[in-house]
Automatic annotation (TrEMBL):
This is Glycogen [starch] synthase. It catalyses: [(1->4)-alpha-D-glucosyl](n) + UDP-alpha-D-glucose = [(1->4)-alpha-D-glucosyl](n+1) + UDP + H(+). Gene3D superfamilies: Glycogen Phosphorylase B. Residues 660-674, 703-712 have a biased composition (Acidic residues). Part of the GYS1-GYG1 complex, a heterooctamer composed of a tetramer of GYS1 and 2 dimers of GYG1, where each GYS1 protomer binds to one GYG1 subunit (via GYG1 C-terminus); the GYS1 tetramer may dissociate from GYG1 dimers to continue glycogen polymerization on its own.
Length: 712
């Protein structure tokens, strides 16, 4: 589902549509990944959101290849007959040879064609293919590693598919095969070993060894050059997986990663420098109403407030209008995702808010799926009590309104002392007594299977944040994906994010970071790190990220304690903002959406495919490699108007939201500020690609002859 933003004077223009000046009709693109129509992690989001742009570029010659999972196919794929004659012959040949290959349309935006291979149906070939893999590459796969076994089956089947398609094509076509992650990488290795006439691309979204090393609490980035990669992979019993990933990286015509920080990691761990960085984007859908995202924020915030009223019943001694909602979400990787330093920073923030007698209350949500057996009874009871109170209030309201109406009909002012009778007071007293609570509001919304060993709950016990009345920071751990059908918090993830004030993602290992990117598209400020691909990308494109609601935490050059202090400072300064300052900041954050749109970032994938075509078919295509400068694309300046953060303000202390007269004195003109942002846009670098058969002056799409992007 595309994320939405507003179209207004604050929207950025200047992004030219990518215009193809060469013929792709004799070229075919296969994109191979284990997460095609099979949601496992972030790669699913990459493929799903990028499909429309790629389908528009390649038309009927774009095919996604993935595993056949019946439960997913029933809900996501429409099975049809292949439209391409060569592909139909290929699938028929494979099916007659003991395989099960399906063809259909993936029911997402762009409706791309998908080829789904049933790997379990050919499990009888596993031993022979493992033996062949050992003979070819000296890579042995243990019998007990089911994921690696699936990778072997999937790799041999995709190589079979591509080879058969090349053989069935009536005329030689230029085939591009783009493989994502190590699970699909073996197919690439086999294509190169069999010398198939195919241009190959391998994209690693996160290195296997990097993820394992970071989970082991090592000083990863400062010791990258010192690791004995073979020993480290062997010690973690992933040497065979590592070999598959490294082989794919070295065999590919073009090797890409999703961020500069992952490119450095890949150079040391996989021993090959990526040819190009392909950042991940999102589909940004635009509203026609001005600042509609601000209205959506208010609506979603009200729904979160309703949940909070029920969760903290009996202890609702704080002002919800001065309550800030923070959240962290993602895979439950306690250290890699930065949940450890977030909790420590919350404890320090709680101290600062208390000693400064702040009237702000912070509620921090942890949305990280973990092993549970059911909802917490106390949490469900809270929502039931809230609903009962609401029903009671509505009943009394109806009675009061009826008596008031009848009194006014006869031309008399109502006697307030008589308009509510004993029954009304009895109902209200019973409702009040029902809200009495002897225990603290629960930290976790579910019953955890391993409560005593859970990292988040263990840390909460250590720092002592138990949602007591004296604490200004409250914690709610929701160990389950959000769903609009949940009886507890009936909101989907997008709606929940819109209702929060700040996303906090202090990750130590985050090759890209879709969670802060989604926050940005929805106009929600976020905290990320200089070890995440998203954080590095924003630092490169924005002169002062914090002014636009993108706080970059330094985890590369600072120790854990220093990083905690910096994160605490970010959070404390955010708590000191007035309501008006937060609105200004959300407006600025939302204006960055164009940076993350596939219409902009998709051209890096286009560049990778063109580079692969030029390497595989040098007689037909050429690609003059030109490194883009660090200022390619957008470059947002620091805003000249009033800063959204008190730490950057001209005033020594923050404004309170009640002091509207003081706020009016601050210089802020959003239309003027947005216009300055548009003026500072710089066009992304031009892809220096030519088709030899149609290489004519000006064919680079910019109207210039030399391909350097200059115009008169």
């Amino acid at each position: 589902m595309p994320l939405a933003r507003s179209l207004s004077v604050t929207s950025l223009s200047g992004l030219e549509e990518w215009d193809e000046e060469f013929d792709l009709e004799d070229a075919v693109l296969f994109e191979i990944a284990w997460e095609v129509a099979n949601k496992v992690g972030g790669i699913y989001t990459v493929l799903q959101t990028k499909a429309r742009l790629t389908a528009e570029e390649w038309g009927e010659n774009y095919f996604l290849v993935g595993p056949y999972v019946e439960s997913n196919v029933r809900t996501q794929v429409e099975l049809i007959e292949p439209t391409n004659p060569a592909l139909k012959r290929t699938i028929d040949k494979m099916n007659s040879s003991g395989c099960k290959v399906y063809f259909g349309r993936w029911l997402i935006e762009g409706s791309p064609y998908v080829i789904l291979i049933d790997v379990a149906f050919t499990a009888w070939s596993l031993d022979s293919w493992k033996s062949e893999l050992w003979d070819l590459c000296d890579i042995g796969v243990p019998w007990f590693d089911r994921e690696a076994n699936d990778a072997v089956l999937f790799g041999f089947l995709t190589a079979w598919l591509l080879g058969e398609f090349a053989a069935q094509s009536e005329q030689p076509s230029h085939i591009v095969a783009h493989f994502h992650e190590w699970l699909a990488g073996l197919g690439l290795v086999l294509c190169r070993h069999r010398q198939l006439s195919i241009a190959t691309i391998f994209t690693t979204h996160a290195t296997l060894l990097g993820r394992y090393l970071c989970a082991g609490n090592v000083d990863f980035y400062n010791k990258l050059a010192e690791f004995n990669v073979d020993k480290e992979a062997g010690d973690r019993q992933i040497y065979h997986r590592y070999c598959l990933e490294r082989a794919a990286a070295h065999c590919a015509h073009v090797f890409t990663t999703v961020s500069q920080i992952t490119a450095i990691e890949a150079e040391f761990l996989l021993k090959r420098k990526p040819d190009i960085v392909t950042p991940n984007g999102l589909n940004v859908k635009k509203f026609s109403a001005v600042h509609e995202f601000q209205n959506l924020h208010a609506q979603s915030k009200n729904r979160i407030q309703e949940f909070v009223r029920g969760h903290f019943y009996g202890h609702l001694d704080f002002n919800l209008d001065k309550c800030l909602f923070l959240f962290i979400a993602g895979r439950y990787e306690f250290s890699n995702k930065g949940a450890d330093i977030f909790l420590e920073s919350l404890a320090r923030l709680n101290y600062l808010l208390r000693v400064n007698h702040s009237d702000v209350t912070v509620i921090a949500f942890f949305i990280m799926p973990a092993r549970t057996n059911n909802f917490n009874v106390e949490t469900l009871k809270g929502q039931a009590v809230r609903k009962q109170l609401w029903d009671t209030a509505q009943t009394v309201k109806e009675r009061f309104g009826k008596k008031l109406y009848e009194s006014l009909l006869v031309g008399q002012l109502p006697d307030v002392s008589k308009i509510m009778d004993k029954e009304d007071f009895t109902l209200m007293k019973r409702a009040i007594f029902a809200t009495q609570r002897q225990c603290q509001p629960p930290v976790c919304t579910h019953n955890m299977l391993e409560d005593s060993n859970d990292p988040i709950l263990t840390s909460v016990r250590r720092i002592g944040l138990f949602n007591s009345s004296a604490d200004r920071v409250k914690i709610i751990f929701h160990p389950e994906f959000l769903s609009s059908t949940s009886p507890l918090l009936p909101m989907d993830y997008e709606e929940f994010v819109r209702g929060c004030h700040l996303g906090v993602f202090p990750s130590y290992y985050e090759p890209w970071g879709y969670t802060p990117a989604e926050c940005t598209v929805m106009g929600i400020p976020s905290i990320s790190t200089n070890l995440s691909g998203f954080g590095c990308f924003m630092e490169e494109h924005i002169a002062d990220p914090s002014a636009y609601g993108i706080y970059i935490l330094d985890r590369r050059y600072r120790g854990v304690d220093e990083s905690c202090n910096q994160l605490t400072s970010f959070l404390f300064q955010f708590c000191k903002q007035s309501r008006r300052q937060r609105i200004i900041q959300r407006n600025r954050t939302e204006r960055l959406s164009d940076l993350l749109d596939w219409k902009y970032l998709g051209r890096y994938y286009i560049s990778a495919r063109h580079m692969a075509l030029a390497k595989a078919f040098p007689d037909t295509y050429t690609y003059d490699l030109q490194e883009p400068t660090s200022t390619s694309g957008f470059r947002y300046p620091r805003p000249a108007s009033v800063p959204p953060s008190p730490s950057l303000s001209r005033h020594s202390s923050p404004h309170h939201s009640e002091a509207e007269d003081n706020d009016e004195e601050e210089r802020y003109d959003e239309d003027l500020e947005a216009e300055k942002d548009r003026v500072n846009i710089r066009q992304p670098y031009t892809l220096p690609f030519k088709n030899k058969s149609s290489a004519v002056p000006g064919a680079n799409g910019n109207g210039d002859d030399d391909g350097n992007g200059d115009k008169d």
